[in-house]
Amino acid sequence: MKFRLRNRHLLFMSLVINLFLVGILFGNVMKPPFPPHKKHHDRMSFEGLAKNLPEDKAQLIKDEMESLRSNNNKIFDEMKKSRKEIIKALTAEEFDPEEYHDAISDMNEIRNNMMENFSDAISSVANELSYEERKTLAKNLKEMEPRRGKWGK
User: Up-side HSE of residue 133: CA atoms within 13 Å toward CB?
Assistant: First the structure.
C-alpha cells in the first residue's frame, strides 16, 4: 500500500512538472517574436537618410554626408585626444576635479561642434528639398534616432 501511494505521488508530481514545462514551451512559441535588432551602425548610417527620396535628391544628401564624414574624421581625432585627457585626469595619483571637468568640457564642446556640423549639413540639404521630400527626410532622421525604451518615447 505504501508503494502504491508513493507511486501516485510521483506520478502526480511528474504530471505537474510536465504541465508546467509544456506551459513554458507553449508560451514561448505563442508570443510574437522580437523585432529584428538594429545594430548601432545601421541606425547611425547616413545611407538611411536618403531612402525613399528621388535619386537626384538622394545623391545630394549622400554627397553632403560624405563631406560631413570627412570633416568628422578630424573631429574624431580630437575626441580621441580628449578621451585620453579624461582618462589621464581620472587615473592621476592625485585626482584634480578641475582638470577632469576641463577635459569633460572639451569633450562636450567637440561633440557639440559635431552636432552643429550635422545640423548645418541637414539645413543646407533641406533647402534644396520640396515639402514632401523634407517630410521624408524628417522620417528618416527619426528612424536613425536610437531607441530608448518606454522612457525615451
Answer: 16
Q: Over the stretch 10-57, which tens digit does the pLDDT of each residue have?
A: 888 999 999 998 888 887 777 766 665 555 444 456 677 888 888 898
Amino acid type, 51: K
144: nearest Cα among 65, 89, 71: 65
DSSP line for the chain: -HHHHHHHHHHHHHHHHHHHHHHHHHHHHHSPPPPPPPPHHHHH-GGGGGTTS-HHHHHHHHHHHHHHHHHHHHHHHHHHHHHHHHHHHHTSSS--HHHHHHHHHHHHHHHHHHHHHHHHHHHHHHTTS-HHHHHHHHHHHHHHSPP-GGGG-
- Which amino acid type is present at position 34? F
CA 129 centroid distance within chain: 27
